[in-house]
Amino acid sequence: MKLVYFAWVRERVGKTDETLDLPEGIATIADLVRWLKTRGEEYEYAFENEAIVRAAIDHQHVKPEASIAGAREIAFFPPMTGG
Amino acid sequence: MAIIRIQVEAFDAAAETAALTTGRGDIGATVAFTGFCRDEGGRLSALELEHYPGMAEAEIACIASEAEARWPLLGLTVIHRYGLIRPGEPIVLVLAASAHRRAAFEAAEFMMDYLKTRAPFWKREHLKDGNVGAWVDAKGADDAAMERWG
């Protein structure tokens, strides 16, 4: 599974992207965040306020309860500030 | 079909308007919104805009389709820059064309309200003293502006 990170989420995780083999039982974005937070303090820091960090699956905004089945690329980023 | 460009280069709103209207007898109104980089009272030397390539284009195309479904548009151009942008330089252009003014006004405002909260761009401040400052926080007022469209 390819994960990509943007803005301060990217800075906190310390990388722009990574490809990870996910363990069994990770069905949703929320499950994925929970698992990532067990991988080290950089993830703990990036996702310290889970309600703030947004997610997208294959370039589409999704909610934490969204299924990740079949996803090619999952992105995590702060609330957007363009325009 | 909207024209959508995500680019580093500056743009010329007048030239984009001419490109949309030249040779057309059906367009009665265009509304062009340009968002500029501010210096925040002299504090900033630049804004750095990061974006999510691929998703930025897809999300803006999705918002543009929604605008085209809601209003009878005869043209829609959206240009959003990324990279380092200095105070006084343009960041974003939304250009809506229609037979009558109301659709053009409303569609341009709708596009901007949705862009602000749904297009994957993030701003970071670069300070006059040479330091890289903080990421700009999202504003609750921007969410409220989007939600009023229902």
From TrEMBL, chain A:
It comes from the Bacteria. Pfam families: ThiS (PF02597). This is Molybdenum cofactor biosynthesis protein MoaD.
TrEMBL record, chain B:
It holds the Pfam family MoaE. GO terms for molecular function: molybdopterin synthase activity. Pathway: Cofactor biosynthesis; molybdopterin biosynthesis. The keyword ATP-binding does not apply. One of its GO terms (biological process) is Mo-molybdopterin cofactor biosynthetic process. Its EC number is 2.8.1.12. Keywords: Molybdenum cofactor biosynthesis. The keyword ATP-binding does not apply. It catalyses: 2 [molybdopterin-synthase sulfur-carrier protein]-C-terminal-Gly-aminoethanethioate + cyclic pyranopterin phosphate + H2O = molybdopterin + 2 [molybdopterin-synthase sulfur-carrier protein]-C-terminal Gly-Gly + 2 H(+). Belongs to the MoaE family. Heterotetramer of 2 MoaD subunits and 2 MoaE subunits. Also stable as homodimer. The enzyme changes between these two forms during catalysis. Converts molybdopterin precursor Z into molybdopterin. This requires the incorporation of two sulfur atoms into precursor Z to generate a dithiolene group. The sulfur is provided by MoaD. This is Molybdopterin synthase catalytic subunit. The lineage of its organism: Bacteria, Pseudomonadati, Pseudomonadota, Alphaproteobacteria, Hyphomicrobiales.
